[in-house]
Design goal:
Blueprint (H helix, E strand, L loop, with lengths): L1 E6 L6 H13 L4 E7 L12 H12 L5 E6 L3 H8 L3 E6 L2 H17 L4 E6 L9 H9 L10 H9 L1
Parallel strand pairs: 1-2, 1-4, 2-3, 4-5
The chain binds 4'-phosphopantetheine.
Length: about 160
């Protein structure tokens, strides 16, 4: 059975990696696709290009059993269908996440009733970590290293 963990991953954080590692253990021999959204629209241009984000996720999940990284654009449910995934995985940190994620899960179920969303609670130490906080801190020349895997830190400083 295939599951899909979608996100913009701009950049991938310690919180994302923890969800990937914990879920892939639970998913044992099955496939987990990390689906990296193009994430580019009128209001938002990611810091890292899609290719950079795919490479980063690939490098960080190399050797994690059953995990592969793929880019996607358009509707998540359409991409999930194309890959044959039956589950969408999303992490939850707090009530704000819950409100947003619940709405997205219900919309995705309307679009693809055969695909189920599974929520994974964030670890205590990752509750205040987010890609958007990383981008805000970095934009103001602050240090967001503590939110990030070591391999991402230098690249962010360069940007
Ligand atoms: O990590 P993020 O940025 O919170 O991830 C959000 C993401 C990419 C999972 C979400 O925006 C998404 O699924 N985008 C694809 C478009 C789509 O299918 N939207 C849901 C229906 S409105």
């Amino acid at each position: 059975m295939t599951a899909i963990f979608p996100g913009t991953f701009d950049p991938i954080t310690n919180g994302h990696l923890d969800i990937i590692r914990r879920f892939s253990r639970l998913w044992s021999d099955d496939k987990l696709i990390i689906a990296i959204a193009e994430g580019e629209n009128a209001e938002k241009k990611p810091i890292f290009t899609l290719e950079e984000r795919v490479d980063q996720v690939r490098a960080l999940t190399d050797g994690v059993r059953g995990v592969e990284a793929q880019a996607f654009s358009g509707l998540l449910t359409e991409f999930a269908r194309k890959t044959g995934a039956r589950y969408i995985i999303r992490g939850l940190r707090n009530g704000t996440d819950f409100d947003y994620e619940m709405e997205m899960a219900l919309i995705n179920r309307q679009l693809a009733p055969e695909i189920e969303t599974i929520f994974i609670p964030a670890a205590l130490e990752h509750m205040i970590i987010s890609s958007s906080a990383v981008r805000r801190i970095a934009g103001l020349r602050g240090n967001a290293d503590w939110m990030l895997p070591e391999q991402i830190r230098a690249g962010l400083r360069e940007k």
